[in-house]
Amino acid sequence: MSDASLNTTSYDNEAGFGDFFALLKPRVMSLVVFTAFVGLLVAPVSVHPIIGFAAILFIAIGGGASGALNMWWEADVDALMKRTRKRPIPAGKITAGEAKAFGLTLSVMAVVMLGLAANFVAAGLLAFTIFFYVVVYTMGLKRRTPQNIVIGGAAGAFPPMIGWAVATGGISIESVLMFSIIFMWTPPHFWSLALFMNDDYTKAGIPMLPVTHGRRVTRAHILVYTLLLAPVAVGAGFTSIGGPVYLTASVLLNAWFIAGAVKIWRRSEEAAVADKYAAERKFFRISLLYLFLHFGALLAEGILRSFGMGGW
Ligand code: HEM
Ligand SMILES: CC(C)=CCC/C(C)=C/CC/C(C)=C/COP(=O)(O)OP(=O)(O)O
Questions:
Q1: Is 28 in the pocket of ligand 2 (CB under 6 A)?
Q2: What's the structural domain count of the chain?
């Protein structure tokens, strides 16, 4: 082996900025942060842009830090799954101890800074969200019950409430409804992915619903949660954050999502295997679009309202 290749090898095993950035789960957190941003912007109290920007940054850092703590705790199972085995800890780029220190430091910093920049309700909610994702979901529920993501999914639903609290200093029916949309959306979002990632979860011994109860039961659960989600999402359209733009978007998006869930429910396992779970993969992608467009529509309605056009 030449000197040059030795150098390359040793460089590859050193942690770089990109590895620490990957610990923050940036792709998932981008949508989390977007929902927090919308929660902040649609609130009835306006925030100074610098405070707003700082608050979103601290929420993003707090969210990312919770991802790092999740990866610290999960390094053993991440090493077993194809989807996760290249993450910085199983790949040997970052030690579990470094990830833990990084996650804890950023978590404390994000909560304190959010408290100073905005208020202590928002900071308390951020601290609770990090605690819920890391301790309740990751350490407590994930390896114990197939209801892990139903209960644990609450963690991912808090960010718009945090954004709303940054602006208003409190909680209201509107912020609870934004929470409820994400809360009801998480099971179809995750279980559609679990349908085609079942082998990974089985190998890692994680009791996700398709592992414990099979894919047929999972398909039915996806449909039930999608049907329960629709009235919550459409219902938000009749509150102070809703209006004709949001309501139209929500009705169409829910019709699309329900049609997709019915298709998933009716699919036979043979058909799914034959096309390598193409419909399930598509439904998962639609789930991401569904949430992004719902919060996008709330944002559009809010912007129109500020020009005296949107809302009721
Ligand atoms: C307990 C709740 C949740 C679970 C178990 C879950 C699980 C997953 C998993 C396993 C993936 C696969 C891809 C990856 O490793 O990045 C994924 C992707 C994704 N999730 Fe979730 N999710 C949850 C909640 C959320 C929430 C609340 C959001 C945003 C509001 C979200 C946004 C995303 C996005 C944007 C992706 C695509 C990432 C990419 O393209 O790589 N998820 N989710
Ligand atoms: C502001 C703040 C603190 C936000 C946190 C938001 C939050 C809890 C999002 C959860 C989304 C997520 C990364 C789920 C992955 O589940 P998993 O950990 O089971 O997935 P994995 O198998 O990919 O690790």
A1: yes
A2: 2
Asked if the structure places residue 7 within a domain, the reply is no
pTM over 0.90: yes
The CA angle 275-279-281, to the nearest 5 degrees, is 100
In whole numbers, what is the pLDDT of the chain averaged over residues?
95
Distance 67 CA to ligand 2 centre (A): 6
Taking residues 86-103, what's their average pLDDT?
97
Ligand 1 neighbours by CB, cut-off 6 Å: 27-28, 31-32, 35, 83, 149, 152-153, 156, 182, 186, 189-190, 193, 288, 291
Q: Output the residue whose Cα is nearest ligand 2's atom 5.
A: 63
What value of ipTM does the predicted structure carry? Answer: 0.96
Ligand 1 atom nearest to CA at 84: 15
Q: Which atom of ligand 2 is nearest to the CA of 148?
A: 19
pLDDT at 188: 98
Separation of CA 28 and ligand 1 centre (Å)? 5
pLDDT above 70 coverage of the chain, percent: 96
* Same domain? 254 vs 285: yes
Q: What pLDDT does 13 receive?
A: 67
Whether residues 44 and 179 share a domain: the answer is no
Same domain, 128 and 31: yes
Q: Is the CB of 129 under 6 A from ligand 2?
A: yes
| Residue 306 sits in the same domain as residue 196 | yes
Q: Please tell me the residue having the least CA distance from ligand 1 atom 14.
A: 28
